[in-house]
Amino acid sequence: MPQISQLPVIFFSQLFWLLVVFGIIFFGIGRGMLPKIQSTVDAREKKIAEDLERAQAARAGAEETEAAWRARMDAARAEAARLAQEAKQESARDAEAKVKAAADKISLKVESSEAKIREALGAARSEIEAVAGEAARHMVERLTGIDVDAKQAAAAVKAELNV
Predict the structure, then answer these.
(1) How far apart are CA 122 and CA 131, in angstroms?
(2) What is the band of 29 on the pLDDT scale with cuts at 50, 70, 90?
(3) Chain-centre distance of CA 62, in angstroms?
């Protein structure tokens, strides 16, 4: 077979071209394009590292800002609570003073009214004694026919009412 006898020649020819193509690929891609790709990858990694560092610095700054904000808010809340407490205390003192003034005014009115009631009671008692004494004197005079002095009748009524 003649095809089999040509096989080593064709094989060596194909092997030669295979080596030439792989050599071109190796030197073209390996030596020409690979350094460019590697520099692009290195630049990208460097950019990512820088971005991560900036993000970390921004995060630290944000945390510091947040901590300062929280401290200001806590101070403001404490101040507001203090002011509210002072306002409550002042309001309580004002209310207490007003209640005390009203209580004093009411107690003066009560004392005045009690004095008036005592006076009215005394006056009513005097009138009742006088009327009762006069009625007793008239009853004794009508029932027994004895004329009783007005002063004696008043003294007897007074003695009976005080018992």
Answers:
(1) 14
(2) confident
(3) 28
